[in-house]
Design goal:
With 348 residues, this protein is of the alpha/beta class. Helices cover 39% and strands 13% of the residues. The protein is built from twelve helices and ten strands. The chain has helices at residues 2-5, 34-54, 68-81, 109-116, 132-135, 180-192, 208-220, 235-244, 261-267, 299-308, 312-329, 332-345; strands at residues 58-61, 87-92, 121-124, 141-143, 166-171, 197-202, 227-231, 247-250, 273-276, 291-294. α3 links the parallel β1 (58-61) and β2 (87-92). The two termini are 26 Å apart.
């Protein structure tokens, strides 16, 4: 979403970008490494240089999720940079960091409050997310939904024909709390009940141990010819998988989940979704209209909704509703317009 924000074309707002490249891949996110200390220091210097060279008045920063190493990094970064800017904007793409103060040693708590306290603007992606801005005493606290570029028409679409297996797609970080095992267990249940389907899972493994666990589950349940781990796909290849699936399944209960951007990527192709009542996800999916919302960590509930979507007319109807919701609320144009409005309001 930061990359999408930088694409904003505005006559009233200019953006200068200093990239935060602390982690090389998803496996290193949230983990300490000496190279990250060097990157942190050089990033602070680059922010100082950008402030002196371009003279921006606002520091826009996406705080980390509730994890010790990223929080300590944020404290150092923010205390080293906020003082240079007239105003600070926090955009909470990850949620729940405001509640992490109790997890820190007492010596760090005043620094935590000084680093995060009283931003001029706090943005969260859905009203159901933790209200980190309110806890931090933000002067203005708003909700701006994410939006994505409409890729429909850019890749070929297909649906299962009569007598063909349905394709169920999961996309996200391949980790426990994104619901990977829930999806696998639900898929095993629908297969036991005779549903002709295959499951594709797209994303990068969070660890080798978790990959082995999931692959063992597939073998133990005789699903080798029905489950495919696609790995990381991007660009056209990624959107081709969304456009070719029949159902999108995203049973997340991820600790820092705030929105579920992959839901938009499915809905733009008019795909029905099965997902969870978790954080901001219900702000994207209308229960019983564009898809189904189920409680977290309940594969039997996921399986029940997948079985209901064997009905081609239900899939078509839900997919069309999802497409209309996407066009109305979650386009990239709407995101840019909302962000521009909030940036301008900082000086009104």
């Amino acid at each position: 979403m930061i990359a999408r924000l930088l694409e904003m074309n505005s006559d009233q707002v200019r953006l200068f970008h200093v990239r935060l490249a602390f982690s090389e891949d998803i496996g290193s996110v949230g983990k300490f490494a000496f190279r990250k200390v060097f990157i942190l220091l050089t990033t602070i210097l680059r922010v100082w240089w950008a402030r002196l060279r371009h003279r921006p008045q606002v520091l826009y920063y996406p705080p980390s999720g509730p994890s010790k190493v990223p929080v300590l990094r944020d404290i150092v970064f923010l205390l080293s940079t906020r003082w240079m800017f007239r105003k600070t904007v926090f955009h909470f793409h990850a949620g729940g960091v405001s509640g992490f103060v109790a997890e820190l040693p007492s010596v760090f708590r005043p620094l935590f409050r000084a680093a995060y306290g009283k931003p001029d603007l706090a943005i969260r992606t859905a009203p159901q997310n933790p209200d980190d801005g309110a806890v931090f005493g933000a002067r203005r606290n708003v909700v701006v939904p994410n939006g994505v570029e409409d890729m429909r028409g850019m890749v070929p679409e297909r649906q299962a024909g009569t007598g063909e297996p349905l394709t169920i797609l999961f996309t996200g970080v391949m980790t426990e709390t994104k619901g990977v095992m829930v999806a696998l267990e639900a898929f095993a249940q629908v297969r036991e009940q005779g549903m002709d389907a295959r499951l594709e899972l797209m994303g990068k493994w969070s660890s080798e141990a978790f990959r082995e666990r999931c692959e063992a589950y597939v073998r133990d349940h005789g699903l080798e010819d029905r489950v495919r781990f696609l790995g990381v796909l991007s660009g056209r290849e990624k959107f081709e998988r969304f456009a070719a699936c029949d159902i999108f399944c995203f049973p997340s209960f991820y600790e820092a989940e705030t929105f579920g951007l992959v839901l938009l990527e499915a809905m733009q192709f008019a795909k029905p979704v099965v997902t969870t009542v978790w954080r901001g996800i219900p702000s994207v999916v209308e229960e019983g209209q564009s898809g189904f919302l189920v409680p977290v960590q309940q594969p039997e509930a996921v399986a029940g909704r997948l079985l209901a979507l064997r009905d081609p007319e239900l899939r078509r109807r839900m997919g069309q509703v999802g497409r209309r919701i996407f066009e109305r609320e979650f386009t990239l144009k709407a995101f840019h317009s909302n962000m521009e409005r909030e940036f301008i309001a900082l000086f009104q």
